Amino acid sequence: MISRYGFHTTSERSKLMSKIKGVDTMPEVLLCKTLWNLGYRYRKNNRKIFGKPDISFRKYKIAVFIDGEIFHGYNWEEKNIRIKANRDYWIPKIERNIQRDKEVNEYLTSQGWTVLRFWSKEVKKNLDEVVKVIKNEINKNKK
């Protein structure tokens, strides 16, 4: 609900933000169901794997992350200029998320894992292409 001044109050914004899910987002569920129906078995949000990938294939050492555009900095150089409210909070937060994603990628790669990252809009719009990339990686890593 927008206040009469045309913007959300702090409590209204807080309530909206609390509804944003961290797991089982629509793109994650869509990709998981598709992979499962194709016969691929995986673990979701496995805490035993560094970075807690959204989908992991331990047998093939493949970690799949589905990143939300806002919180993971899609097109960040252009988008960070558009943040108007609470810049002192959001810019460092999103930049730290970007840095953490790089750290996770580097660590998992150093441990022999293949890391696949997809933007959530990519999963929604090009699901077949995303599945194809994952299938190709699984076939490459089969022993």
Shape field: globular
CATH architecture: 3-Layer(aba) Sandwich
Output the CATH topology. Answer: Endonuclease, Chain A
- Under CATH at level 1, the class stands as Alpha Beta
Beta-strand fraction estimate? 5-15%
Mean pLDDT: 85
Order of helices and strands: HHEEEHHEHH
Q: How many E strands?
A: 4
The Rg value, from CA coordinates, equals 17 Å
* Number of structural domains: 1
The CATH superfamily turns out to be VSR Endonuclease
Strands of the widest sheet, in order across it, are 1-2-3-4
Question: What is the share of helical residues?
Answer: 40-55%
- The number of helical segments is 6
The parts where pLDDT drops under 50 for at least 5 residues are: none
End-to-end separation in angstroms reads 55 Å
SS-derived structural category: alpha+beta
Largest sheet features = 4 strands, mixed
Structure, explained:
The protein is of the alpha+beta class. A hairpin with a 4-residue loop joins strand 2 and strand 3. The model has no long low-confidence stretch (mean pLDDT 85). The radius of gyration is 17 Å and the shape is globular. It has one domain: Endonuclease, Chain A (3-Layer(aba) Sandwich). A 4-stranded mixed beta sheet has the order 1-2-3-4, sandwiched between helices.
